[in-house]
User: Which sequence fits this backbone?
């Protein structure tokens, strides 16, 4: 993940070397997530490899290094984990929610719009215990490349699941199939 300019000073001077070592030597170019990201999409270790196609989406995998305690100053190898961008974003989602709320509050305060009453914190569901639902099965063949039903469309060289026009045609065929069966 890119380092925000205001946080650069929190990382050690040798962070590029530390990050490279974790991603290439220890992780051997593969995501080290074993489900702690909470995505619920991979049993065991995540199969994504740096530079390869991400499972499920076909997008290019970028291996990053996550601080498990969200503290950039703590670069103990036990606190660092090589993660693909998908696992890293999911792992950090609660932290991102908290920092976004703090940023919004600071902007309101800077604009002189302080609340007279502190807003109550709304209860948030424990996202780590509710994994993301599985993607729906693709029940029709792709009209552009002929990919079989339930198979990721391959008409785009693995750069993305499908082009908009192909997606629209496949969605139309899927809806027609659903209407015919009901």
Assistant:
């Amino acid at each position: 993940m890119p380092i925000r300019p205001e946080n650069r000073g929190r990382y050690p001077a040798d962070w590029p070397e530390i990050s490279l070592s974790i991603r290439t030597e220890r992780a051997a170019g593969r995501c080290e997530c074993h489900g702690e990201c909470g995505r619920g999409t991979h049993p065991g270790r995540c199969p994504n490899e740096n530079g390869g196609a991400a499972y499920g989406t076909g997008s290019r995998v970028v291996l990053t290094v996550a601080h498990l305690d969200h503290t950039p100053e703590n670069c103990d190898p036990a606190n660092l984990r090589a993660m693909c961008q998908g696992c890293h974003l999911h792992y950090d989602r609660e932290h991102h929610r908290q920092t976004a709320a703090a940023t919004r509050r600071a902007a309101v305060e800077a604009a002189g719009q302080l609340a007279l009453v502190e807003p109550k914190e709304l209860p948030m569901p424990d996202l780590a215990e509710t994994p993301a639902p599985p993607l729906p099965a693709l029940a029709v063949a792709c009209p552009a490349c002929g990919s079989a039903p339930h198979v990721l469309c391959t008409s785009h060289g693995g750069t993305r699941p499908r082009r908009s026009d192909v997606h629209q045609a496949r969605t139309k065929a899927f809806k027609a199939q659903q209407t015919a069966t009901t």
